[in-house]
Amino acid sequence: MNHSFNLHTHSYFCDGKEAPEEYVKKAIDLGFHTLGFSSHAPVPFKNKFAIREERLTSYFSTVRDLRNKYRKKINLLLSLEIDFIPGITKDFAEFEKEGDLDYTIGGIHLIRKKGIEDLWFIDGPLQERYDEGLHKLFNGHGRNGAEAYYSQLHEMVATQKPDIIAHFDKIKMHNKERYFSEEESWYKDRVWKTLKFIASETNCIMEVNTRGLYKKRADTYFPSPEILEQVHHLKIPVTLNSDAHHPEELNKYFPEAMAMIKDIGFKELVYFEGKTRKEQPI
Ligand SMILES: [Zn+2]
Ligand SMILES: [Zn+2]
To answer: Looking at the CA of 6, which ligand is closest?
Structure first.
């Protein structure tokens, strides 16, 4: 069966490229039954990626209007991809209430180290920016940086309870095995510990995110197939998203990802109908 939904997309309300309606039209062309909008939630400092606070209500109403307009053709969902930076960002529950969101996506893009004002931006197109932040916050020490990433993610999952965890091992993207290796035992242990916590203490869904591959910033999915085998073993539910920033990216690498997901042994993907979780057999 073709993969026919996407819960992780960015329009021109944040750092995406087109109006939300363009994504709806493309999703209908692709035969999707469900499309979720998940602009980056506002953060309380100057940045180029998130929705501005004053545009938030307009984002909410735009998606709701589209939901009504297209309700006979496609199931449209309202969400936000929310950053978690301890002591800086708002609680996910506040955004959830404000927008009456169907689900939340939690993602770590900026790492905070106590006592240092600058944040480490681990995402975006520039490897130099990653390197600069790692040096500034952790003296270029890859293990300390990666440990900080996973402990911030762990804290996000424990305290904010997002429905979906975005790009679980994003920290690897600009590292490219330079500052730490994903093969080292401390790294594998840290990942395993985080996954075990997710499986036993939360209801979170793990997304398989194809963006690193089609943007050629990573040579595999977020998370890697090795991690997804553990996700499967621990019975953590999964979904498949492309993290599209353009309508043309709505189904990028979906056939390849579906084959990989099935090969690992997953039998269904999770999506939403309104606020209700649904399972799509694969
Ligand atoms: Zn993200
Ligand atoms: Zn995203």
So the answer is: 2
